Structure formats: structure tokens, C-alpha cells
């Protein structure tokens, strides 16, 4: 039995309506920088207002930084860090999707450590300097997909060099995370499906990971796979179904715990390369588009693990690894995303070569975790199969 | 879907031989009070020596307090706290069974907060004052049963008033825990079985708990139940089987995570009352002795949960809750503890009344978590059935 570690120091508070109890939680400072997207929904649905009122009730002042894009960029980390320093905030709240929470994590690092995010990023043009501190982070996700509320990871795009890279350090685990499925009731079906499949692949990749999976990540992963297969189609079909939203939110958090205890594999590198060049491609849609070809590639390399996932999904005994591919196909059909293809976002075969280069250069380490090492030809073939 | 929290801030390091890497872990101070039992094994097997050498290698001095009894007592908490203060230790290492680690936790509270442990204990003669800090705690279990390495709980007996009470606060989660199954290879079969069943009941009680169980505690509990049913008999039969020892150690840690996320039930109150009066009765043996009568009492009150546990144990579909009772019986036979009875430790029917009073007075709150509230007559009947 292997050696492994488990360290998820985040205080997780899960449940419908729990955002209304934020003021009763232990808060890590006296003034918060609240990081939200450039969209309107955090204001329109009253979530920002609620957070500010709850903070005020606990005697905590706040400042708002509302510029984050769906694919968050490095220059906004710098701008947010400056605002954080100028307004003397002592902790950072990420409210919204993964982009806002990931930017909050990056701001927390840059403010505490000084310098530039790419001083600390590993891979690409990052300098990989050690991170020894960060401002405390509070995560309040309003989507179910990234799992960033219980893992140390963030993904930021450096537009100057077209690098979309994951970063993460012990100090970027959120101190406190409020996962309140009520905040997710208004998400449209398509986004629900994209984000839900992001969570699904965090779990599946962490489970088939050849070297990083552990007994605890396996436990989290199989439960996330089981829950998402069962409840994601329900949440996609009826977004107001609070029970299905709750199950999907919990599965997404579990999948985040997989990311904290195992690791994503090459599938995530393949996708990040695409959305680095095509920022309008939603991360989850990119993953869905390449997933069939990606998982087919390892069908004979992780047979037992494919069958185990299939069994958790279908609740039936599995006799062959392709049962997982079939179950994945059914799930994508039930969520209305079985026809997602790369050409939908303007990607052409002329992109595949630079995708392959970017994938292996910026987050290439993840390919080492695949059940078998993919050749460059196989990588391009995965893009080719996912094209149309 | 219910509301729940998850907070286990402990850094867990799991694996055979990991104690030899202690010096590479982040240590929370410069001088450690190492708390060990009054027995000889920590010295005889070289574990104390190894810990001291590893600490020294990391530049950490240490002092040893070696008086802990199998049922640890309050006066040793006071003596250890005095030694800790006098020798200016800034963290506490619990090395050994649950008794040493629990005492380390109690010392960490008393040194940081001042006063007496019963100032902070809730129940019995405890004053229930809030605990706002504790010295950092490092846990190095050499047995697999208590789960104290990943939960905030400890159990100390106040011999002046015959109260064996559990305590626990956010600050008594260990900062660091090293679970090294190699340290468990020398445990004799009987103790292995007793301790393994302690872990099993942490999981089973946390799973049938009517009000405190959560989606995450259920996940941990069912995996612990599954692993212990399969591997505890193997570890009892051949203590040198490192794989079985590892599986049992991991299951025990998972069961500790159940204690941190759900709670024990009345079974633990019933047992603590017995060993408060009969300190030579091993906690696990006491639990085994009363388990058949205890679980029979709720057979029709938690039917689905009994069946689910039975399915995890036998790997077969269960159609009736008594399948769990049958599987428990098989497991106890395979571990050679199916004939454990209260009379073996000198307990007589004349004790039952004071047991029942002690159980409901000192840790009576746990009865609220049972699938159904037991009457005093039913409590006495459980002792009666477990007598011979």
C-alpha cells in the first residue's frame, strides 16, 4: 500500500442558504477585497450585496474589484493587487465562478509576496519562485465545476505570452469556503453542463492518474463520478431543482478534493492550450469536445479503473473498459452536450500543431500522469478526432 | 440535502516507513514534549529514539514524559503540563496509543489556557469553559484504533470523581500526524482486534448516527467498515502482514475522520462508563462485549443503513438489516473475539445500575444521536445481555 498525504485545511461550510450565515463564520481579517466578474449577475441576483451586508454584520469592511473575465488574465491580478494594497485589505474574497476565485488566490499571493504572478508560476515563462505566504482567502463559488474552493489551484492566462497555466501553493487553500447551492439555481443549462463536466473530469482524471492517485482521492473521485452521472442531467434539465443542484455542487467540491489529493492529467493540458488561444471557448466545453478521443486512448491502459468508474455510473457490473466510454456517451447525451466539437469555436486543423506545443510546454507535466505517455502524433490525433 | 461542515486541518502523512521522514515535515516549534506510555515498548522498539533523532535532525530539542496509563488520567495531564512549562516546550508530541496522544492534546490545552482540564471538559463535573488556543500537537500513533490522529477528541479519566469523558476543541486537531503502519507490526493479536473494533465502531456509530452523519462522514464510514471487515482478520492472524496492517491503519484513520465529521453514539457512552469503573477493561473489548446487544436494539430503526453496511462488508446485496448483525458476528469470530463478555473483567450485574447512571450523566449527549432513544431499562438490558 502506497505512501500518501492528505492536507485540506479549508473550513468548508456546505448547504442551501449558508451564505446568509457568513457573518457567523470565523473571518480572517478586518477588511476584505471582494473579487467578482465583469458580468452583471453578482449584482443582479443580490449576491454581492448579501456578502457585503454579512461582512458588515461581522464588523468587516470591504472593497469590490469587478473586472474578472471568464478566462481570467494576469493584468487583472496586478490591478486587483494594487487595489488591495491601496485600500489596505487584509484578506481576499473570491465570489463567483472559478475565474473570480482563482484571481482572488493570485491576488492573495502577489500582495503578500510582492512581485508578479509569473515570478511564482511553474512552467512556460514562469520563474517558479517559492511562495511562503499569502493573504487569507475566502471562496464563495456560484458555479459547480472548478472545485477551487477546496484546492490550492488557480488558472490564470498571461496574454502577453499566450500561456494559460495552473498555479497553486499550500498557502492558496481557502481558509473558509461557503458552498451554497441556492446561488447556483439561476445558471443556464448549457453552462451547468459545461461546468459539471469540468468537475466530472477532475474526478475521472484524478482517478485514472497513474502516479498521483491515492486511497483518499479514489474515494472522493468515485463518489463524484457517481453523483454527477446521476444528478448532472437532472440539474441541466431543471435548474431550479435544489436537490439536484446540491448533489452536483457537492460532487464538484468532492472533485476539488480529488485535485487537492491526486492531480489532473493530460486532458486538462490539452484543453488549456485550446482556451489559451481561443478565450471564448468555455473550459468545460473544451474538455467535453476532446473527452471521447482522450479516454478512448487509454482504454487498454487503465482497464480496472475504467470498469470501476463504469460500475459507479451505471450501478451495474462492468466486464470491459469501454463500458466507461459508453456511460460517458450516455451522460453527455442526457446533458445535451454530445455534439460539442472544436470547430464550433472557430478552431481549425491548422491550430493543432501550436495546441500540441503549448500543451506540452506550459502544463506538460500532467502528461506524465496519464495511464500511458502520449506521443505528439497521438495528441494531434486527439485534437483531430474532436474537431467535427 | 442537509447542511454540513468539513474541517480537518491536520496534515496527514501516511505510509510504511514515514516516521523516518519526520525531520522533513514542517514542525510547529523548537522544543517538543514527547508524551509516551509508562510501558516499555516505545523504548524497546526504538520508536522514542527514532522520534528524538528525527526531531534533533530538524533542530528541535525534546523532553520526554513517560507515565501514561492505558486509561489515561487527569493527574498525569497536570504533571505533564508542569513538565512542559518547566522545560519550555512549545509543542507536544503524542507517541503511542490513543492514551498518549489524548494526554498530549490535554496537555496542549492546559499549558496554553491555564487552569485544570476539567475547567474545559463538558459533562460530569466539567465546567465547559471555552478553549481558544492550544499548543500545536503532533500525533504519531503506534496502534490502529482511536483515530485521534485526525480528530480533535481525547478521553481522560478523572479518578477523583470516576468520570471518563471525551473532550475536544478546534484547537486540538493535531497539526501534523504521521501514520506509519510499520510501527504497528509488533502489536499482539488480541490488542490488534480490540483496537480494530474500536475503529470499526467509530465508523459504524458515525454511520447510524441519526442527526450528525453527513455525506462526507458516510463516505469515510462505509470505506472504513469495508476495509476493516476484509483486513482486520488478516492483521489479527498475521501481525507481520504489512499490507493488512496498512489497510487497517488507513481504515482507522478514516474512522477518525468519521469522528471529526459525524459523532459516536450511545455505544461509546455505555463503554466509557464500564472502563471508568474497571480501568483494566480495554476500551475495544468493552465495545465488542456490548456490540451485539447494542446493534440489535436498533435493527428496525436504521434499516437502510444496516443493510448498506452489510453490503460493504459482505459484498453481497442485503435484503434485511440483520445481515449487518450476522456480518458483525462473522467478523468477531474471524478475529477471535466473539466470546468477549463483561464477566471476564470482574463486572457483575450489581454494576449495571451505576454504569447506566454514569453513562447517561458523563457522556449522555451521545444517546441523543442513537437511531432511537434508549430507555434506562433498555440500557441495563444491553449490559445484561453482554454479561456472560
TrEMBL record, chains A, B:
The keyword Signal does not apply. It comes from the Bacteria. Keywords: Oxidoreductase. One of its GO terms (molecular function) is metal ion binding. Coiled coil: none annotated. Residues 192-387 form the Fe-containing alcohol dehydrogenase-like C-terminal domain. Residues 9-181 form the Alcohol dehydrogenase iron-type/glycerol dehydrogenase GldA domain. Belongs to the iron-containing alcohol dehydrogenase family. This is Iron-containing alcohol dehydrogenase.
Amino acid at each position: 500500500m502506497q505512501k500518501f498525504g492528505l492536507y485540506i485545511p479549508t473550513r468548508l461550510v456546505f448547504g442551501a442558504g449558508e451564505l446568509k450565515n457568513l457573518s457567523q463564520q470565523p473571518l480572517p481579517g478586518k477588511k476584505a477585497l471582494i473579487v467578482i466578474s465583469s458580468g452583471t449577475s453578482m449584482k443582479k441576483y443580490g449576491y454581492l450585496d448579501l456578502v457585503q451586508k454579512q461582512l458588515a454584520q461581522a464588523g468587516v469592511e470591504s472593497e469590490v474589484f469587478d473586472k474578472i473575465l471568464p478566462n481570467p488574465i494576469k493584468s487583472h491580478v496586478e490591478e486587483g493587487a494594487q487595489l488591495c494594497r491601496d485600500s489596505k485589505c487584509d484578506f481576499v474574497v473570491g465570489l463567483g465562478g472559478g475565474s473570480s476565485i482563482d484571481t482572488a488566490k493570485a491576488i492573495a499571493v502577489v500582495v503578500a509576496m510582492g512581485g508578479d504572478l509569473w515570478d511564482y508560476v511553474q512552467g512556460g515563462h514562469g520563474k517558479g519562485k517559492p511562495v511562503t505566504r499569502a493573504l487569507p482567502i475566502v471562496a464563495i463559488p456560484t458555479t459547480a465545476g472548478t472545485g477551487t474552493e477546496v484546492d490550492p489551484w488557480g488558472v490564470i492566462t498571461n496574454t502577453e505570452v499566450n500561456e494559460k497555466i495552473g498555479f497553486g501553493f499550500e498557502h492558496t487553500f481557502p481558509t473558509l469556503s461557503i458552498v451554497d447551492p441556492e446561488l447556483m439555481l439561476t445558471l443556464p443549462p448549457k453552462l451547468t453542463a459545461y461546468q459539471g463536466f469540468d468537475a466530472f473530469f477532475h474526478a475521472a482524471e484524478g482517478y485514472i492518474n497513474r502516479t498521483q492517485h491515492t486511497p483518499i482521492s479514489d474515494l472522493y473521485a468515485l463518489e463524484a463520478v457517481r453523483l454527477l452521472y446521476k444528478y448532472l442531467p437532472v440539474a441541466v434539465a431543471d435548474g431550479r431543482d435544489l436537490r439536484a443542484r446540491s448533489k452536483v455542487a457537492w460532487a464538484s467540491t468532492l472533485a476539488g478534493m480529488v485535485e487537492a489529493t491526486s492531480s489532473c492529467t493530460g486532458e486538462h493540458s490539452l484543453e488549456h492550450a485550446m482556451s489559451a488561444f481561443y478565450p471564448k471557448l468555455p473550459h468545460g466545453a473544451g474538455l467535453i469536445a476532446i473527452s471521447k478521443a482522450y479516454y478512448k486512448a487509454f482504454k487498454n491502459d487503465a482497464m480496472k479503473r475504467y470498469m470501476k468508474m463504469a460500475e459507479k455510473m451505471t450501478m451495474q457490473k462492468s466486464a470491459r473498459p469501454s463500458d466507461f466510454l459508453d456511460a460517458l456517451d450516455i451522460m453527455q447525451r442526457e446533458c445535451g452536450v454530445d455534439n460539442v466539437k472544436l470547430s464550433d469555436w472557430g478552431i481549425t486543423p491548422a491550430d493543432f500543431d501550436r495546441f500540441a506545443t503549448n500543451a506540452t510546454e506550459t502544463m506538460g507535466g500532467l502528461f506524465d500522469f496519464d495511464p500511458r505517455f502520449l506521443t505528439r502524433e497521438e495528441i494531434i490525433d486527439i485534437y483531430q478526432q474532436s474537431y467535427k
